[in-house]
Amino acid sequence: MDRIYNGMPARQLAAEGWRKPWSGGNGGSCVEALRLEDGRVALRQSTDPEGPALICPQEAIENFIRGAKAGVADFLLA
């Protein structure tokens, strides 16, 4: 792959290997993640697997997970 960028079609990254670490009882609508070879993480919406991917640096994903565990993202909960 020549260039990986935010918003690129997720199908161009990989057909397999996407995981649903945050899946819940929401009827199948969840975030899917794919670890890229260079350590970055691609995210996509499971209901739109052909849609755009958000490409996050490893450090951003680590900070997000640590923050979520510490309750920093609790404001997002209903």
Structure at a glance:
The chain has 78 residues and is an alpha+beta fold. The chain has one helix at residues 58-69; strands at residues 31-35, 41-45, 54-56.
Q: Would you mind describing this structure in some detail?
A:
The longest helix has 12 residues, at 58-69. By secondary structure, the chain is of the alpha+beta class. It has a 3-stranded antiparallel β-sheet with strand order 1-2-3. It is 15% helix and 17% strand. It is globular, with a radius of gyration of 13 Å. 6% of the residues are buried. β2 (41-45) and β3 (54-56) form a beta hairpin.
The count of strands amounts to 3
Helix content: 10-25%
Which percent band covers the strand fraction? 15-25%
Q: Could you state the order of secondary-structure elements as H and E?
A: EEEH
Poorly predicted ranges? none
Give average pLDDT, whole number. 90
Radius of gyration equals 13 Å
Q: Main sheet?
A: 3 strands, antiparallel
> Kindly, what is the distance between the CA atoms of the first and last residues, rounded to a whole number of angstroms?
39 Å
Question: What assembly state would you assign to the polypeptide chains in this entry?
Answer: single chain
Number of helices: 1
Estimated structural class? alpha+beta
Silhouette: globular
Physical arrangement of strands within the biggest beta sheet: 1-2-3
